Amino acid sequence: MDYSGKVKVMKKTLAALFAILCVAGGMRTAATTNANTKNSGIVITASAADTEVITEGKNASKYTYKYADATIYSTAIQALTIPVEELKAKTTGSWEDKETNKIYKTDSKWTDSKTGNSYSIYKITIKENKGSKPTVSTEYRIGLATLKPTTIDFKLTDDIAYPVDEKEVKAYLSEKNKDFTGISSKKATIIGPSALASSYVKTVDFTGFDFIGDSALKDCKYITEVTIPKEIKYIGTGAFENSGLKKLYVNNEMPVVPEKFCSGTNLTEIKFAHPDYIRTIGKEAFKSTPLSDAVVTNADYKGDANYEFVEIGDSAFENCANIKTLAFPANVITLGKSTFKNNTALTTLKFGENLIAADNSCFYGCTSLNSITWNNVLETLAGSCFTGCTSLKTVSGMPTTLMDWVPEDETLGWGVGDGVFSGCTSLEHVILPSSLKRIPGSMFEGDVKLKSVQFGDAKKEIDSKLTVASGDNIVKIKKNAFANCELLQKVDFGKTTYIEEKAFLNCKGMTSFNVGECSVVGTSALEGCSALKEITLLSDQYGGTAPNVKSPKDPNKTNSSEGYVFKGCTSAKKITIKTDDKVKLSSGMFQNCTSLTDIGGDLSKIEIIGKDCFSGCTALTHLNMPILKIIESSAFANCTALKQITDDPTLPIKATDYGDKAFQNCSELKFTLTGDISTIGASAFQNSGVTSLSLNGMVGGTVVIGNSAFADCANLKSAVINSQDAKKFSVGTGVFANCPILEKASYDGPLVTASMFKNCPKLNDIKLLADVINANAFEGCSSIQSLINKNDGTLLIAKEIDGAAFKGCSALINSSADANTIFKGSQQYSGCAALKSANVSTLTSGMFENCTSLNSVKTNNVTSVPAGAFQNCTSLDTFVFTNIESIGASAFANTGFKSIELPANVASIGNNAFLNCAKATSATIANKNATITGRAFGYNANKQIPNFIISGIAGSTAETYAKNNKLNFMDETGKLTANEVTTTTKATTTKATTTTTKATTKATTTTTKATTKASSTTTKAGTTTTTAKVEGILGDTNGDGTVDVSDAVLIMQSLSNPSKFGTQGTDDHHITEAGKNRGDVENRGNGLTNMDALAIQKYKLELIKSLPESVQK
After folding, report:
1. Is the model's pTM score more than 0.85?
2. Contact 598, 620 (CB under 8 A)
3. Each residue of 910-928: pLDDT tens digit?
4. How many Å apart are CA 545 and CA 953, to the nearest integer?
5. Alpha carbon distance 262, 248 (integer Å)
């Protein structure tokens, strides 16, 4: 409360009382706004004239200390700096006595060497709170600044010794303080602010002290009992706060109990020698103490004509959990904010005969309160006064002096505030005074058992059988007034013309509702009233506030959040509204009215549907709104039964603007979409029944289509967006994704956005102007063969193709790319099983994976084959590695390679690079230092390919790889190292034979030695060397169309085991005469020898440039 304002004329009935108050205290009380509302403060008013004078109490003449009344006088205790130590030279903050030229250090306190206590010189200034003389007294005294913390018993000591010569101290004070006239005593007569705070003191003898400063004994946990002698003139704020105090005897004059006086203590007993002097109990004076009474309700407190009128300050007794009964005497006139908040043991409350105001949250959370006795003069119950009083069951007998809230300003006023009985979860029946014309905001919010609210005078009795809230006196119901009153069944306020927002929010049990024709029905006024079956609510405005209030809320603004009047009325089948002159239905008006089938009122003139208006109306089948122009976000979302929004279902929808999710999940609404469109929001028609769309232009020059605008449309067959002249396209992702029967699409935009046609399996006719294809644009379009340029009908060639753009397009035969196309991301053509050839300037990870028909790739100076680029391309049996420097993991896994020939430029080969290349029996690695990772070659799954040969330079990483993976290795000299695990058998010749593995068969030749020198035996056709005409490629011994290490292997096999691999051999893949002729490549014409095998090896390792090799003998 604010005690410094004016007193205003308001009530004649209290004229006599307030005249006394004005004479006795000249007071005005006010309170600030509570958390939920602006009309929760109180202003006490009187019939006396306005005055700025604060007058003395009726007992002022009895005071022995004239400044005792803190209502009128304020006291300040200030520690001063003085000289405390003589110095040899000046320092910062030092002081020089001009007469003695001595230099002193200055400080605000000094320590007494005897006691260990610190002392200060204090200046005491007393001012008049209101009056012509602001300062009425000044004096200087010695005081205790800090008690030695380990002191247990404390009392006044002998004279205090100054830290330096007394003359120097007084000289300093005279120089610094013009009003200094001397120090009254050498004894300490002041206990300074926080002087004993947090010490171990258990007993304090205040004899000899006059002033006790702020927080003097704060947090003194070991002090339990204190007697304040009558000589004490002043006690500051929080003197005993959070101490261990249990008993307190106040023998001095205390018209005002200081703020936080005993807050947080263990106080159970307090006695005042002069209780009749008390005018004010200060803010938080006894907060959180175990007191069982409120001082003024103590049995010893008479409160008769000899006592002062009393104001109890904010939170004075908050959290006092032992107070059970409050019966205020006649002299208590006002209660401050939260005065008795959370007095959880309080059961009975009786307003004193002159108590006129209880401020904000005064009895908040008094969970045991079950009985209230009112007086006949009460004028103010401020906001949340009885909030959370969960034991209250009935309220009646309230005086008609309680009126509608009258604000003085934004935070102050008088009358009945908001939320007075909110959260009273046991409250069932209430009789409010008939003097009220408005039901305050949140008045009964959360009163889940409320059954009836009636109006009358103090004599009207409760009828426990009633289940209605009614009153012809009520013209306005404020916001949240009955919110969450779940048991309230009937509402009948026939004269009400204004209902504020959420007034009946979640009144789930309400089955009957009647009010007058309104000017305004606020946002969510009936939201969640799920038992109402038929509603008639006529109003000029649905949602928002009246236009004449401060900061009005207008439901007619774009995408306004004001509306939602009938949201969640799930049983209402028919709702009748006033539609005169309306062009817009407010946002969320009927949202989630799941039983709604009929709107009473003419909707044919409606042009704008606010956001969420019919969202979730799952039973609604028919509306007639033929001239719609703007449909805001989610306006018809999830209207799953809606079949038509015009009386003629064949008419297309021709609005120009569709917000996000406007018709999302309207799967039964079969319609075509045509015309000039300004905006189509994200998911605007997702999963709707749209069958075709033909947009011939965009209003404003900008094409705006949001993400997933037409996604999941099961009936959409054709989509045409013709807007070549648009200045700007702003098109989201997934616009037509998952449209299962979409066959034809024509689109003028400059790019196909991400996932635009993803998973449209029937799409086979697509015409575009776009030359940029974003990620996943056509993923899963399994019928697309080619993209067509809309301008000239030719195949479309894109400038850019992003990741997975054609992934899963199993019918695609044209890649829409050339050597200039830029690729971003990965897997552009993954799963394009019909694609046979490609011409690209970049390879990406997984770019052609699972392209099982791909057999020709032109790579245009590509230097890297990323991971999985050709994985599972089973028809790919050749690749030009001329410029390739690195091959990523699984890059050629499961391809059709018969031999793997990697030139010297290939420096890096990733794990599983050629895994499962089942047709390949060898791999040549020309780069001596190539990095080979994991199982790059020679494996099907996790098993070695039998007889697989790694060919490379001796001492190379290829040889190391072969050894580590137990694969055969052939070096550039033709030396073959058999690293395979073999079975030893008896040799069939007199000489050891070389261990070899045929590249083209499963057979394995065994030997007596793991490593042996190649045989030099040469087989000749005759004694005369004859060179036969070559049929095929020179060096292609096995006739597979390529020259590789398998040809060298077959030469060596035919020489070492002619019965199996010779021209008449038993193996299916034995050498032929033509093969022998093609294999004669070293000094051609001298017949087939091991040197021919070596020549082929040198050729593959790029040690010679061509075949045949001519060797000078």
Report:
1. no
2. no
3. 999 999 998 888 899 999 9
4. 88
5. 9
